[in-house]
Amino acid sequence: MKIALAQLNYHIGNFEANTEKIIKAIHQAKEASADLIVFAELAIGGYPAKDLLRSRVFKQHCDEALHQIATHCQDIACIIGAPVKNSDPEGKELYNTAVFIENGIVRNIIKKGLLPDYDVFDEYRYFEPNKHFTCIELDGVKIALTICEDLWDDDEGGNSYVGDPMKELNKENPDLLINIAASPFSYTHFTDRIKVLSQQVAKSKRPLIYVNQVGAHMDIIFDGRSIAFDTEGTKIAELKRFEEDVQFVTYNNQNITSTTASVKEPISEIGLIHDALIMGLRDYFQKSGFKRAVLGLSGGLDSALVAALACEALGADNVLAILMPSVYSSDHSIKDALDLVTNTGCKHHIVPIKDITSAYDITLAPLFEGLNPDTTEENIQARARAVILMAVSNKFGNILLNTSNKSEAAVGYGTLYGDMAGSLSVIGDVYKSKAYELARYINREREIIPVNTIEKAPSAELRPDQKDSDSLPEYDLLDSILFELIENEKTGSEIVAMGFDQSLVERVNKLVNNAEFKRFQAPPILRVSPKAFGVGRQIPLVAKYPY
């Protein structure tokens, strides 16, 4: 049995484009004499469709697309993810299913049992969990077909409500395991994925095919990297990272082999983050119908990083950098920004803000009489820049990219309606210490981000001789505490027990909690870590936070 693994990039709700892409892959597989083609979880309609799954029209389009796809499955079988109506009025309206089509007819509908509701997932909101699991059969081959999470659970007890799908399926002694997934990217997740898949192969002593989605849907990024394992747990095929791909394996004599598929070379963590951000940016613009981006370029690391990523993802001609020096901007910052413009080839304009901020100072002088300058005046500079950037966005149709990093977002080191403005936060899930690594990775072949931008002390340049370290701990130390607090979800007391200074941990913890209202109003963030700000980390705004 020749099997095609179809790893495609879907556009949520774009049924015409998605269906055309799926049908094209089916015919490609037929031309290669494949017997079966396997697509990802919820390929029809796209994932995550969220409350579109409540739309009658959306569900109707899903049904129509599934019917259209089935008509092309002559002389080839197909497994594809789709939302399917639940006939039981007592349950949720839909099941998350893997539809098995043969000779144009739907032979089986396999329903997902373990519905994740952690981090970025909220499947219990839309789907009814399945409680009964059975294999499918094609040409005498018994297949344990599962959907994403149903393969991830172990047989130490499973889920108390639906049980352990794989434990039940293994009782039927399947010949082959197939799992279709929509498994989001984080820089740690592939290792976990390989571990779980390998464990299932070791338990069942059966080969396994895993097909994942690829593509980005605003904040959530799918890396693809679909995989096939033989009975020994050896990875015999790995599809491309962050790209569409169709590859073939052959099932024969209780095992699978491949003569055309390849196993990818390992890539560094920072390389993965870079590639994820590039795809996240590109897909956000393409799927939203946008072409051009604008951003404020200060000469600092973060804006240089976002500019370099945007030029790579969108093309330098589609990126406009606005330099907005103030009376506090250093000559070297302006030079660094202009050097980056030269290195990337992006467009740029220089719009000084001295007269704008002076006008604010004069206008507010009667109201602020007798009061010393403080962060109020600093924030006015940041908001003046945001007004200019949004004016350019409105006038020319360039989408504003936010340049704040995760460290700043965590502790609230940013101006609401100022430098926190934007339609998309490109590096909002990248800590400052990791941003330096990313900059050096971008410069791995030639200097794109000026060396001085990377080496100089970070500063917002909102007052004379200002440094970030005036307000914050050194970033390496700050980020270590933030990582334990956010990614590892440790309490302040637990972090202190690890050896960190108690007063510093208390201060950082308070800053993170106090900045929650800012993050609530921040733009969506491209998710590359196991715990990003946004939908995967939901904290009440008005609360007494435990230490």
Précis, in short:
With 547 residues, the protein is of the alpha/beta class. 36% of the residues lie in helices and 18% in strands.
Question: How would you characterize this protein structure?
Answer:
The chain is α/β, with parallel strands linked by helices and 547 residues long. The protein is built from 17 helices and 20 strands. A seven-stranded mixed sheet has the order 5-4-3-2-1-14-15, covered by helices on one side. Strands 6-7-8-9-12-13 form a six-stranded mixed sheet. The protein has a five-stranded parallel sheet with strand order 18-17-16-19-20, with helices on both faces. Helix 8 (331-344) links the parallel strand 17 and strand 18. The radius of gyration is 26 Å and the shape is elongated.
Structural class by helix and strand composition: alpha/beta
| End-to-end separation | 58 Å
- Spatial order of the strands in the main sheet? 5-4-3-2-1-14-15
What's the mean pLDDT score?
Answer: 93
Query: What portion of residues belong to β-strands?
Result: 15-25%
Q: Count all strands and give the number.
A: 20
Largest sheet: 7 strands, mixed
Query: Which of globular, elongated, flat, extended, rod-shaped describes the shape?
Result: elongated
Helix percent band: 25-40%
Q: Roughly how many Å is the radius of gyration?
A: 26 Å
Indicate the low-confidence ranges by residue numbers.
Answer: none
Number of helices: 17
